[in-house]
Structure formats: structure tokens, C-alpha cells
Amino acid sequence: MNKIKLGSKPMIYPMPVTLVGADVAGKPNFMTIAFIGVVNMNPAMVAMGANPSHFTTRGIVENRTFSINLPSKKMLEVTDYVGLFSGKTHDKSQLFTIFRGETKTAPMIEECPVNLECRLVEKLSLGGTDDLFIGEIVQTYCAEEFMTNGKPDVEKMGSFVFTMDDNRYFSLGKPIGKAWSDGKNFKSK
Amino acid sequence: MNKIKLGSKPMIYPMPVTLVGADVAGKPNFMTIAFIGVVNMNPAMVAMGANPSHFTTRGIVENRTFSINLPSKKMLEVTDYVGLFSGKTHDKSQLFTIFRGETKTAPMIEECPVNLECRLVEKLSLGGTDDLFIGEIVQTYCAEEFMTNGKPDVEKMGSFVFTMDDNRYFSLGKPIGKAWSDGKNFKSK
Hints:
Chain A has helices at about 55-65, 75-85, 155; strands at about 5, 15, 20-25, 25-35, 35-40, 45-50, 65-70, 100, 110, 115-125, 130-145, 145-150, 150, 160-165, 170-180. By secondary structure, the first copy, chain A, is mainly β. Chain A has a single domain (about 15-185), classed as Electron Transport, Fmn-binding Protein, Chain A (Pnp Oxidase, Chain A, Roll), CATH 2.30.110. At the A-B interface, strand 1, strand 2, strand 5, strand 6 and helix 2 of A face strand 1, strand 2, strand 5, strand 6 and helix 2 of B.
């Protein structure tokens, strides 16, 4: 075993990059979140870790709704900006064109190719730096220009990802395989 | 608003691709998991959604340990194979070289560039298809060949990602930005 021990590191590589939104004190606010993942197929649910000091988390708890917005790489600078500055000192309500869905209180970003409108199911303390927010996705939005055969297409979306510790953003490369399919060839080797 | 409503979709794009391992009935078993994300910085924790019928989940509950192994794109076929077939009918204990850490009961895959050794903190029912597993990362392992300046490097790791619904795997592209940095340029425009 030639592996080096790095200690306890939050390194599920690579991580998604999302802009999570909520109304706080009557205005849309956003935070940049990579500590997030899908955790349930049906109903579709997400789990997110966020420091409770983040301004956006106030709105999530108050309204019990939030949005997850997936930015394109064209939006890299503004996405990073949202993560650098708190809504306590920087008004982020004018950064994006906002639209709303059935929950009314989850501000969504028109410029982002895909938007997930969520209801807060539960907030749990993990006894650490971040609280765990579990959300149910009540509606998914995508503009037609980012879809192929009726499905969101990360190539058209210009998706990008994040790695923590070296703190870099990466574009996606090319499709290299088909899930629930390529593994059928494995045993024949 | 020119967006199309797609219904409730688990679409945090793109998703990581991981091989999650546990000892089941005395043998290492693995499942391919994309419903997973970091949810706490300190102590480092993950949240994972997995259908309780998966063979591997038995071992996670029994031993209260599991591993998260990050495959390289060279391992795409075997990674997809692991997701296609259940340990109930297919013995996956010989697919990889196994090593173990301090927990002893979390089988880790030597061939994967990065391994996260986890203790189960909590298992919650979400009232849906999947159960929520919250794990604390007790140790992280990486071979030197996959690191740059002492940190795991996704370019050397050959990381790849997944999109659900169109069920494709994608390689990563190039570094396109620096986190907690590029956003400082945003306002100057």
C-alpha cells in the first residue's frame, strides 16, 4: 500500500458548483455551495451542508424554501463573487434576473441553465461547522437551448466543477461512456 | 421566463462517480454511487442516498463503517459494472486489490486514486426510495502519483463525472479558474 494518509478531508472529487438562493429580509440572496448532492430518487431530494452563519440560511429556515441554481462557466466570476462576500455586507439581489415558481419564496436565477426549486424537509445539526439541510425538489426548470432530446445537456449548459484544497474550477471534457451500459463489456475482457 | 418545467428531477449536474464499499457476509462488496456529497467541513462528513435493498448497505449498517473510493476514467467499465450487478448474485470481492485502514471493516480499493474511510454517523429514512447515510470521514488516502504539491489533483487522478437521465459519463476538461479569487474581478467590469 503506497498510499499517503491526508487526515480527514472533505474530498469527494470533483464537486458540483451551485448558487443556492433564498429570500432574506424581503430580498433574494445567494450563496455558492459545493457541499451538496442528490440523496433520494423519488421524491427527488438533496442534502446540503451550510454554515448557519451564512445569511442565506436565515431565509431558508424562515420560508422553508430555497433554490439550487446551476451556473454555466460563463458565470464563473459572478459565481465565485457570490461565495466571497456575505449578504450581510453586499446586496446580491441585483446580480441576476430572478424568476419564481410555485413556492413563490424561492428566488431562481434566470441566467442559470438549470434551476431546482426546493422545499426544506429538515434541518439537522451535525455537531460540526455546518448544518445539514435536506430539501425536496418540487420543480426543475431548464431553457430549451440547454437541452438535447428534452433533457438538460451539460455540454450545452457549460457546466463546471470544483475541487477543494487546491481550490480550482474545471470545465467538463467530452462524453466518455454510457452509464448502466459500458459495464456490460467488463467481464468479456 | 422561457424555461421549461421538467417536474421533480434529481439534477445537481454533474454528479461525482464513486465506488462505495463495505464488508457483507465476510467479503468486501461495492456499489456505484452518484447520490453523494460532502455536507460538513469539520469534522468532514458526507451524505449519501442509497436504496436499502442494495447489498452493500447491509454491511454499512452492520459494521457502521464504509469506504468511498474515487475511480479514474481508466476504471470506467468496472465502475459501471459494479453499478449494474448486485452483490447478491455477483461476487465483487475479487474485482479490486483491497486495503484497510484504522476501522478495519471498511474495504478500500487500491486502484482508486483517492479513498475516504468513513464511520456511519446516522442512517435516516427519507420516506422515499433511498435511505440517507451520513458518514464521518476518518481518514483520506491518496497515492503520491496523483498529487501535486501534496494535494490530490483531479487531472492526475483522471476523474470523471456522471449525468443522470441522459446517463452519460464525462471526463474533466482544463482548469478554468481559481476559487475564492476570481470573483474579486467581478465588480470591476
